[in-house]
Specification:
alpha/beta; eight-stranded mixed β-sheet; 17 helices
């Protein structure tokens, strides 16, 4: 509270003078008591000054519509939406999301602080609250080949930025539980502030040590049982619903069936494509799905608002009450999350549109693909007559299975057929020429190749296919356009360029959405099954902190033993 303004605000709160704006005749959700109350909302200078019976200089009759606090996305990577941050917000604000806890570790892996600064600058003048967690694991593990190494010393230079909240998701759990000095320095730098987690499938004792280190949250629980185990240790659970990883159903079902307290649970999207946001919604989709699964509507809205606000220590967000920022969502229907209007700091956002991107052609954020050229010999995978290690995909999840299978071969070299595709990861930052090759099953691709420069988290070039010629063509196409997504069949490419960091388009979201729709349809025609996002699923196959097995430019990596295979 700015107490120089309090005397005037107090007069409004007491009904002595009119507020600047009053939303009349609403059904207002009180997230503290769980009640829905008939009331007006008095707004002055971006703040809620009263909820009750008020008159305003400008009055908006809501006609009995519901009013809930603006939604909070508790953890996301803006880069994963493929569009610039303002263009993302133009879509997600319409869905009711007014606050974003952003981990820009994708941009940081490519360009260090320059990548973080891009996200901060792009979200400086928008009708939303955008906060940043400084990436903790760049690269994700010591074994990775990223474009940057982001140390505690570098973090300290910017830790006091007003929109930097704390430490981003700590993926390298081995360095945490093993008390590696560099990781301890990062945790110590943010002592007393929130450190986000990333802890898929840890053992009971390792998870205990991880929580002991002060890591406050996790979004990697794919089962209710695991999320409950984390909650028992005091961790706050972000229930994720992205494009590739969809965990709302299993965790919310567990909450409903167990009757467990939901105050330690929030919603996040983590990685969600703009196409899915436009089709399903954003945090609004999480709420709607949770209610359909049987969760009480009030609890679903609390998970989308006050729970996240409390997790991150926000005293001014997440509720409709005096002194809170006037971030409000007006709903025609509570259970369907049918959004009628969205207010940020008391201003209706309906007419806000994202400005065009102004990024010079010679910006260091462009032209970031520095991969050595590769030929067919780089894609060779020698195999024996016995069983070989295979990455097994799981529909609807980003975790994989470590399988053993007899692979089809010719002259001792793996040939992609009989349900197996070839996967290759090519180092793209320093032209080292490093290439890792493996076999995957469950992707189903026939008659071509799919390649991407979005390859979590180091963002090397990733390509899969059923023949080497199309795989090589796909890699060269990405080198030509400066990064992006491409699908190649018979040497012909269908491509979405992502020239900013090799991660983000500089085109309007309508163009990106249309191109993604076209490419998704093509991938389905080429055999990629429902339940497998052809781009996001592919992107996570190079991230060596998610079980069970991944591929890096240095080779196949067993996440459970934290060591390379072979």
């Amino acid at each position: 509270m700015d107490y120089t303004k309090y005397p005037a605000l107090s007069r409004i709160a007491r009904g002595e003078v009119k507020a600047h704006t009053v939303l009349k005749n609403g059904r207002v959700l009180n997230v503290f008591t769980g009640e829905i109350l008939r009331a007006d909302i008095a707004i002055e200078d971006g703040l809620i000054v009263g909820v009750g019976d008020y008159a305003g200089e400008h009055e908006v009759d809501l006609g009995g519509q519901y009013v809930v606090p603006g939604f909070i996305d508790a953890h996301l990577h803006m880069e994963s939406t493929l569009v610039t941050p303002p263009r993302l917000l133009e879509n997600t604000i319409r869905c009711g999301t007014t606050t974003y806890i952003v981990d820009p570790h994708e941009a940081t892996n490519v360009k260090g602080w320059d990548g973080i600064e891009f996200i901060l600058n792009q979200t400086e003048d928008v009708p939303a609250n955008v906060y940043v967690m400084l990436p903790s694991c760049v690269p994700a593990t010591p074994f990775e080949m990223a474009g940057c190494v982001y140390t505690a010393e570098e973090m300290a230079k910017h830790a006091d930025h007003p929109r930097i909240l704390g430490l981003g998701e700590v993926m390298d759990y081995v360095s945490v539980v093993g008390a590696e000095p560099g990781m301890m320095a990062k945790l110590d730098l943010f002592k007393g502030r929130v450190s986000d987690g990333h802890a898929p499938g840890l053992s009971e004792k390792d998870l205990t040590a991880y929580a002991l280190a002060g890591i406050a949250t996790d979004h990697e629980g794919v089962t209710f049982e695991y999320a409950r185990a984390e909650r028992r240790l005091g961790m706050h659970i972000h229930v994720r619903e992205g494009s590739a990883a969809r965990n709302v159903e299993t965790i919310v079902r567990g909450l409903v069936e167990s009757g467990m307290d939901t105050s330690g649970f929030s919603f996040c999207t983590d990685d969600k494509h703009i196409e899915d946001i436009r089709r399903e919604g954003h945090i609004s989709h999480c709420i709607r799905k949770a209610i359909a699964l049987g969760l009480e509507p009030v609890k679903a809205y609390q998970m989308a608002t006050i729970n996240s606000a409390r997790c991150y220590g926000f005293k001014h967000l997440g509720a409709i009450a005096p002194g809170y920022q006037a971030d409000l969502v007006v709903l025609r229907d509570l259970e369907q999350v049918d959004v009628s209007a969205v207010y940020c700091k008391g201003t209706d956002t309906a007419h806000w549109h994202a400005p065009a991107l102004e990024l010079p052609a010679d910006s260091p954020l462009r032209g970031t693909i520095h991969a050595a050229s590769v030929d067919a010999s780089a894609l060779c995978l020698p195999v024996s007559a016995g069983e070989s290690d295979v990455i097994g995909l799981i529909p609807g999840q980003i975790v994989t299975e470590h399988r053993r299978a007899v692979l089809p071969q010719e002259n001792g070299l793996f040939v992609a057929r009989d349900g197996f595709n070839k996967l290759a990861v090519i180092e793209r930052h320093h032209e080292t020429g490093a290439v890792g090759v493996a076999a995957i099953t469950g992707f189903g691709l026939r008659g071509g190749a799919i390649a991407s420069s979005v390859s979590h988290d180091s963002h090397n070039l990733l390509v899969t296919g059923d023949n080497d010629a199309d795989m090589l063509c796909a890699v060269e196409e990405l080198r030509r356009v400066g990064g992006g997504y491409t699908i190649v069949a018979d040497g012909k490419a269908l491509t979405l360029p992502l020239p900013i960091l090799g991660l983000i388009s500089d085109r309007p979201f309508e163009e990106v959405d249309a191109k993604l729709h076209e490419m998704l349809a093509q991938a389905r025609r080429m055999g990629v099954p429902e339940g497998i996002d052809p781009f996001l699923t592919l992107a996570f196959l190079a991230l060596p902190v998610i079980p069970a097995v991944r591929l890096t430019p240095r080779g196949l990596f067993d996440v459970e033993t934290f060591s390379f295979i072979g």
